[in-house]
Predict the structure.
Amino acid sequence: MTNASTSDLASLMRRNQIRKRVTMAGNRARRIGGLLAAIALATAGCGRVASPIREGSLPPGVMSAAWACRQVIQRAGREFFTRVERVHLVLATYAKGEPVESRGDISTGMPPGTLVWVVEVHAKAINWDHSVPAGYHPPARPYTDYSVVMNARTGLVTDRGECRCWPLPLSKVGTVVSLPPEC
């Protein structure tokens, strides 16, 4: 072998080693990138439990379940709930959702076809300081459940109540979305 061919061979081997390293680095980067993409997709729901209702499947202008949940929790105030444990929501029309939330009553707070979120919050206790009739005595055990009927586009709440009735039969009117306390 001549000196020139030896140096050409050595150069070729170095280039192949460099290519191999670059290829290995590229494969590793793709694997890490794929892993990061999978993690991002898995955590995109901010702690949400898997649900058949995806953000992209909501009708135009309807707020997400997580946003509706945060609206109820934040509007209630810091002292309203004692240790929220779980939140259930269902997207339904007012005509279907309101009777489930109020356990039979139906009011005329919204037109029957209006899309609403029925939001049910389960907590250790509900501390609702609201007006009550004269002679009312609070229950010996505090209420643990608070539910709301909220316009799914505007956030307007037309009905709300408290009880010890977890869980409401929300699955009768639609797909239930279950969220952790922080929504």
In short: The helical segments are 3-43, 65-76, 94-101.
